[in-house]
Fold each of these.
Amino acid sequence: MALLQIRNLSVSYHTGSRMVTAVNGVSLDVEEQDSVGIVGESGSGKSTLAMAILRLLPGRTARVEGEILFGGQPLLELGEQELSRLRWKELAVVFQKSMNSLSPVHRIGAQMADIYRLHEKGLNKKQLRERIIKLLESVRLPARVYDLYPHELSGGMMQRVSIALGLMHRPRLLILDEATTALDVVTQGQILREMMELERELRIARIMITHDMSVVAVACKKVAVMYAGHLVEFGPVQDVLRHPLHPYTKGLLQSLPSFKGAKDNIRGIPGSLPDLSLPVQGCVFADRCEHAMPVCRQVKPADTAYSVSRRTACHLIGGEEHAAQ
Ligand code: ATP
Ligand code: SF4
Ligand code: MG
């Protein structure tokens, strides 16, 4: 059984008289020790999907439907107490601005110690300090960071602290939401390599949300492509890069210089995301798809298995007999 099983998940935000469906019928599995990249343009629902898994959506405005099983437990049905047992310890997250959640007036070490004690009690002060310094060193930060305040760290150092926090309790699943996006390419590459090494050692699975397909190419085994709240393609990264199935994935790859060579070959996908407050009729990508057929405007393409490991939702590909799940 997969570590994380997402089944037909939909999330809509209700603000005033407007309802926006940010995630629409997504099904996805993450195996133990797997690494899954989630890509898609801004507003496609990536963070909303992550927040639903983490149960961090605003309860008053977000409506969630579907099912999420984590280690067999129904995440959406757990009470606060059960959830707090899972957070950090089994399910951890690093956001782009995770460091903003640290207090500016307390030293890094003291704050990490507080988070450590949430799940592991019984260490004395000296042992705790040693444990945290070891953790800082595992993300290649010097021991002196323990005594620094957040504002005394560079952006790269702050992200390393955030990743150290995410790894602190050796979670079974780590979710990174644009966690390395703001860093320069060299620092980003270094952090990714170190993180992958630690993951292997600690047997951690990872979901990595990013705009950057080249990050997914080096740091993930599988990729899920989202468009306007829908999961339009899923499969092993190398297969999807070499032979994308969905027209949106093809467009995404064509707009990347590293995959198409010369800079003047870069072209974005014309048009923009549809209005997420309107019901979807037919294929959600139809307005921007150069292959759109009459059926695309009338019938929603099913999330369909193309092979054992690949899925896509497009009328050009697959057949009803292969319908996924
Ligand atoms: P980005 O790449 O810019 O981070 P994303 O793929 O993570 O984008 P989301 O942040 O999940 O996208 O947003 C999906 C849709 O849901 C957007 O239309 C957004 O405006 C809307 N949305 C997100 N959070 C809320 C919220 N708290 N209340 C209302 N609408 C929201
Ligand atoms: Fe394009 Fe039709 Fe496929 Fe949608 S279903 S991506 S409109 S070809
Ligand atoms: Mg986001």
Note: Residues 260-266, 319-325 have pLDDT under 50 and may be disordered.
Amino acid sequence: MTIQGKVVTVTGASSGIGEATARHLASRGAVVVLGARRTDRLDRVVAEIEEDGGTAAAVPVDVTDPDDLKALTATAVDRFGRLDVLVGNAGITRIGPMADLDVAGWSAMVDVNVNGILHGIAAALPIFRRQGSGHLVTVVSTSGLKIVPTQAVYAGTKNAVRTFLEALRQESTDGVLRTTSISPGYVRTELIDNAVDDPAVREQARQHMADLGIDPSAVARAIGFAIDQPDDVEIGDLTIRPTRQG
Ligand code: NDP
């Protein structure tokens, strides 16, 4: 089975890459279950997908709460009969040197970017095992591949997730589970909006993103490519960045 008819849950589907992914997969015939905290935005995306003839549902999800991930995956199974793919996309970033001691920001990144993915894995794996198949897709980052100053903790969270998926892959050679880590470079989204407190630095970062970043639909298509493979083919790591990114 390729994308058509697959039941896919997407975390962080209220904006940016997650929203674009939900729209793209729905346009290709997947049933999509969207999770995030801003439910007004989720409802709007669901309504627009349905207007275009797609099938979608929204679930209020804070990925730092394991019960919310259970509710998200359970909605897929209860309403649509199964869960084929979990796209663990929800994430946040904070930019700044470690010497700034943004301890609250570090904790928030670990909570959302690392624990949020682990809660998703814990909710989805038993369903995948019961069904005999499933696919975990996570949105990590080129920040984890090319380490640069000011993104230490963010890069660390993304590399932690990459590590979980590689271990899971090696533990799952019975063919039940496929794992994919997508590493985007700069993408024009709202990610930067809460990344830094200083308005001047934030504006500079936003401008940089606007000048260099690619459209989130490009990442959505990459995720679609990974999901579209036949069951015996796994796209493990996929990097997608602006052609001009260094
Ligand atoms: P956005 O800020 O547009 O999207 C982030 C999404 O995560 C939102 O839908 C937000 O929804 C959700 N989110 C944040 N915190 C939580 C939470 N506690 N519970 C549930 N959902 C949450 O940015 P992007 O689309 O860029 O980010 C998506 C992913 O892509 C992130 O993991 C990011 O690290 C990664 N990425 C982005 C890059 C870029 O250049 N933009 C580059 C590389 C990776 P809500 O606030 O409604 O809960």
Note: Helices lie at 16-27, 39-51, 66-80, 103-131, 152-171, 199-212, 216-227.
Amino acid sequence: MKIAFIGLGNMGAPMALNLHKAGFSISGYDISSASCEALRAQGVPIADSAGAAATDADVVISMLPASQHVEQLYLGETGLLQVMKQGALLIDCSTIAAETSRKLAQAAEARGISAIDAPVSGGTGGAIAGTLTFIVGGKAADLERARPLLEKMGANIFHAGDAGAGQTAKICNNMLLGILMIGTSEAIALGVANGLDPKVLSEIMRRSSGGNWALEKYNPLPGVMENVPASKNYAGGFGVDLMLKDLGLAQENVRAVKAVTPLGALAHALYSAHSQAGNGALDFSSIIRLMQRPENT
Ligand code: NAD
């Protein structure tokens, strides 16, 4: 089975590497030559273009930033759907608008190609460890075809429903993640402003009723946890602008279905302000900087 893997960024690179290590025949591609070279150095074959990788692939996996990148890659006269084999399987792992996933699935079906949306949760740590959660939308039979590959990159695989349902479930999760990272940051900043040791406070809250994923795996304050973006100057990880994109997708959906998400709207406004202050490329846990007193940064 030949696999094309398009998009070798913070998430795509370790995911492609895990498939390569599991013995699958991978051909990777990214528009960034630095990303291509980093993966080539680890033994993963790299193609000259997305088209070259996808032409004879049985499965094409993509891990791109946002809807427009996915549309650009697959749709239109120069899109990959024009060169992919009939009967091939498309697995898009990017977090994008559910509407775009549905449009892609329809366009793929019209060309005899199966497509599922399979956005992930678990961060770069989960991508490296192969313990991601896949949240899949599409036909059950197509998920079964994808399962042997997803199992090499993840530990949990959920079928959320038809095409686009994976994206809807994913933005519900990420809206909650954005809110809880802000809440966790506020609580830590308050403790530090009172002179508490942030390591001790974080451990107290982790084991108390405020315990959550940020405290377990992704503490936002530098120095509390090793190997998290906060302790690497907020490099790598999940970018502020990607979180802002997901919170924006959630708010677009809120308007469409007339849901009520006041904290989701506030989280969107706070991440927007943080991005506009020049922090868009930092990891999203850097939102704690909005809450820290200058003498504590
Ligand atoms: P990233 O910016 O690190 O990587 C995206 C890569 O796509 C880049 O290397 C970029 O050069 C490449 N790219 C863009 N357009 C391309 C094209 N047309 N052809 C080939 N390559 C192209 O982003 P990431 O953190 O890896 O996130 C990817 C997706 O996963 C996003 O949708 C994000 O929301 C989602 N996600 C990220 C995390 C995380 O912790 N980083 C967690 C869960 C989900």
Note: Residues 6-12, 29-32, 35, 50, 63-65, 69, 72-73, 94-95, 120-121, 123-124, 237-238, 242, 246 surround nicotinamide-adenine-dinucleotide (CB under 6 Å).
Amino acid sequence: MKVFITRNIPATGLQLLREAGIETTIWTDRRDLTPDELISRCKEHDALLSSGPNKIDRSFLEACKHLKVVSLLSVGYDNVDVEAAKTLGIPVGNTPGVLSGATADTAFLLMLSVSRKAFFMHKEILKGNWNFWDPTANLGIELNGKTLGILGLGKIGFELAKKCIGAYDMKVIYHNRGRNEEAEKKLGAVRVSFDELLQQSDVVSVHTALTPETTGIFDKAAFSKMKPSSIFINTARGGVHNEPDLVAALQNGMIWGAGLDVTNPEPMEPGNPLLEMPNVAILPHIGSATEETRAAMSVIAARNVIAGLKGDKLPHSVV
Ligand code: DGY
């Protein structure tokens, strides 16, 4: 049995695959595969282990009906046509749970960095502008006792809320379709409407999946309901915010700052005005990028491949 792997993965996952007698082919080019290249590679393999932005859409799945499993090295699966995979009977796996702590750390890092303009200050030092001891210039804002509003309170949001309560005694409100009883019980989180979340939060952090319902949900109308002193954080998917509207919201003082680990599009264009704003911090989609987390993700992804090739139920499946 052979698996095609679209980007190099940590050795722990590779070893599991090889110990199971599975032949591995890894795409090592720095560029992403085109859709046709992905199809032609997959035609020579029995399974696909995919990380990055490859579109696992209907035309790909129809061209590769023979695949016994598609295993994603991510928790998000907005790049997959789930209905098509179901209809064609191709199991799709993902890597939930193990990346919650690292991704919540990234949201926390952005929140604190934005609140103290840390990325901007660092850029100024690189330009030779060390002189910031002006008592009224470049002031940040404190997070202590503020309200954290989470859109999509699941495992990652839960981890972030715990950190914010522990570090800054923040009050947690959230907006989900259903209730998160565990978060209500253990963290005192309060479920509110989307508008209430926007109006009451000092920091809004996005942890929802990208779906037709959440695409562009942070637009001009949403930003205009937020506090002028608030910070917007997105470590989920860039498609959840409308980027020109975010730029305008920051320029017009509708919100105070923003921290993004995901942008729209990715990669961000070099001249994007967000890169020059003092109250903005941008990272290149590194939410889960730690040694420990990526190794754990590679193990789950490998186990999904092994199970799929045997015809067993995947340990973590979205289809
Ligand atoms: C995830 O796991 O969904 C990360 O964002 C990587 O795409």
Note: The mean pLDDT is 97.
